[in-house]
Design a protein that fits this description.
The structure is a homohexamer of 78-residue chains.
Chain A: H1 16-34, H2 38-48, H3 52-72
InterPro entries (chains A, B, C, D, E, F): Hexamer_Tyr-coord_heme_pr_HTHP (IPR021111), HTHP_sf (IPR038125)
Pfam families (chains A, B, C, D, E, F): HTHP
Protein name (chains A, B, C, D, E, F): Hexameric tyrosine-coordinated heme protein
């Protein structure tokens, strides 16, 4: 697999906002690793971006990735 | 992406009630980042707000976002 | 949003039983915040209370809310 | 709600096996609280006990309840 | 219920590989406790083992059981 | 079961990127343990790699496996 799965190879980010962006990127990169064809992903994106249930599940995955990133950063409390 | 994903760029809130509101906002902002078109989101909202399974899943995502926020705030025990 | 999302604005409860009740209430209040119309919620409740898959998912959300509440209370070990 | 949601009002159990039984009971009691009619639950049980997807989701909920109970008991390491 | 739910009545295993096997067994035993009929389970297994969505969900449950077992074993770091 | 479920029999990896690869492998190996037939898995892979909802759920499972691996590695903070 020659796709980078963790941009910057680190879970540490400066802020929660940056952590949230990383969570979205990491979620997308797993999809890319599973379906590497750009055209197919574009077609599927048009489907899930217009489907209420799918969008909720996208939110679910991002929330889970973010939970890990937030813990890694001690919730940016320090 | 020019959408703010974490309002206030912090997971720290004064109370559990505030944390719950943040959880709902954060969940919605991921949907907005994935489907930026306002009209499409309004249409989809009319769907999931009237679908039992979808509403339960909305609750699931909010519960997960809130778990992270609650941990960040040491469960507002201090 | 003028709905109270965390009754008592605290995750601390006297017992696990009380924590479980809070988990159920918090799960329901997110649904109420997303679908504020009482009649619509009553109609949807008749659907999910009679659907096996939906009921299992209701249990899932309550389990997740409870996990957070239990952690907040140090699992009522003290 | 006059249904007991946490039998014994405690998450502490003597063994992992006991904890697993508690997890199953707690998962079922939320379903009972949501659908109190015994006949309806019996009918729904006949459905989900014969549906592969539903059974997997039952396993999911029990796993989540158990995670909380296991943490409460320090994983029975002591 | 006369089915053993946690083989060995312990979450402690020698290695991650052993922990993973335990996770799979524990996930299956909940299904067995919910649907005790061997023939029915065999029929359902033929369904979910040939359904992409079901297989992914099986993986989900095992991942969750494993998370608990891994925490119980301090991630086999010691 | 003669399938290796945890490559290297360890959750410890040098980097987040390596941890992410391990998460994907572990998720796939559970599917392999549940459906050992190579041809069937290839057929199912063609299905889920072209289905938006399935791909999102694949991402969900990987996120959960990764959460465990990240915790095992102290989030690669050290």
């Amino acid at each position: 697999m020659d796709i980078t799965l963790v941009p910057g190879n680190s879970l540490i980010t400066a802020t929660p906002e940056d952590g949230r962006h990383l969570a979205i990127k990491m979620a997308r990169l797993v999809v890319k690793a599973t379906q590497p064809d750009d055209d197919t992903r574009a077609k599927l994106r048009a489907i899930y971006a217009n489907d209420a249930s799918d969008l909720i599940q996208v939110g679910h995955v991002v929330a889970l990735e973010f939970a890990t990133i937030a813990a890694a950063n001690n919730y940016w409390r320090d």
